[in-house]
Model the fold of this input.
Amino acid sequence: MWKNNTTDSDRSPLSRRRFVRAVGATGITAGIAGCGGQQATQAATQTQGGGDASATGTESTATAVEVDSESLSLIQELAYVTNQTLPVLPLQEKLAQSFQTTDSWDVPPKDSPKIQTYWPTDWLPRYGEWTATDGSSDERLTLAQWAVPKDSQYNTWNAKNFAEPRRTLFDRFMNYNLKTQEYSGYLVSDWELNGDTLSMTVREGQTWHDGTPVTATDVVNQIKLDIYNGGSLGRFVAPDDEGAVADRVTAVDERTAELTLATRVNEDILLAYLQPKYLVAHEETYGEFVTRLDEAGSADERSAVLGELTGLAVPEPVGSGPFEFENADTQRTLVSKFEEHPDAGNINFPEVEYLYKPSNQSRWNSLINEETDGSATLFVPSNKLNQLPDSVQTSLIPRHWGMGLVFNHEEEPVSDPRVRKALAHVINREAVATNSGAGTNSKIAVTYPTGLTSEFSGQVEGTWLDGVTDQFQTYGRGASQTEKAASLLEEAGYQKQGGTWGKDGQPLRIPIKGPSGFSDWVAGAQTAVSQLDQFGIEAEPVMKDNSAYWGQDYVNGNFVVGLQGWASYDNSHPYFHYKFMYDSSDSGYWNVPSELDAPVLHDQVRDGETVAPGSLVSKLSTASE
Done:
């Protein structure tokens, strides 16, 4: 069985066509604000049976997404399991702010479809849509990076400090427009799924920075290493036998790579796993790992090779993108234009530098002081937005995720679903969204904690929960439902004495860990903590350095309650969100049980209250098209 590992490929965006066609045409544009882009809105809505008077929604009415009945039943069942057990507590959904300066740079308008790409700093320069203006003295595009530049490295299979310059150093397989939710070819210029075979064509003229041509073998090596390292394509290519990967991921000729699938898979889901891959697998650096993994005779042998691969740091990469690595020190990484890249002619500036900016605050100041020329995504509160120069434009990009509380299911007290539900009843999600949004209209409270996104476009009620919303709890979207919370805690054996909830002489404590550099998340967590404290739960925010939180506490499950995005960002299709919750390395960090007990919504989907959500996720990946 494949390891539950969430890589870029696991959190990649869903494509076009049937499931999301209507969203691209109607749902995404329905929230357009006067300043361009989307805007979160809070409008009262009528509630039904399981809801409550505090539920609100969006002002827009979206056209329903086309979805077959088999898929919809599975989606609704997974939503119901999530709503009834709360393995995570979704708090808000977000639109990402993206920034481009216009004084020395020609960029598309903020409401242009060209901005709605995965991501602007990746793609606009490649297509000649982010260029230096005529007569500009600024010949270097300046961006930001989180990790210390000299400590950064560019081995995608080593999760530590895989830094932002990867965006220009390596090419993605395909492009993806977040607004239209359509793919277009790039390094993989064309593809065709014919039965159980996916053929991919490598773009002509692609060249590594050492001058060697990019071939189908390089694409094959990238896919193989991702699969061997636990990437989710493995479950479709070689679900039961890692030794079969070598025979099922092959190069037919210099420019044609093929995947032979072992099981049926929805094409949109398959492409979504391929699209965001960067071509990193340069033969001289990674070829030996591919050979050793292909030839390994046991899982133990593969594990040993993977240990070497994931421990390898590559500080000076041979890239495949339009810029090549020059140098890095404590404050910046410098890359220069690679003239042999097919898109080099579209780029009229010779260098990009990435400055070390490890917090939101430092990035705000860099934009305000015109030190940087833009940001792919960055949360900037309204008081800081007002300080931006007139030359900085703000665009809003749909993300299909947002901040949530993740529970360590092996830690008391949140191992008890009654405690998780009580917390949900206490926390006023509208207040969390408002405070973390800080006047930017980029956050909206989740109405139904189900793991479903598209709150902005009305698709949660309009499509995914159509006909069954009265079966779902809101847990109080805009108000603390203290009586319901108290009843659940009393059922779980807690009593309130002297204004504090406790059991066996010990107070009920809820420490919430998170990354200190994510200022909007910090504000949201502080709001939730205040509400819990007021109710009588001893809650506290425990904000850690970004690298310490993500690299140590989070991945080692060293938390009771943690901050994390509650969905698989940039994906519109529910499959990816439920896979993230129930079948990924992240769900392993939360110790989510493989089986949960929850009431049945659709008896044609399951016939008992004990359910393995991962099996429903697997069925959804191959549901009827």
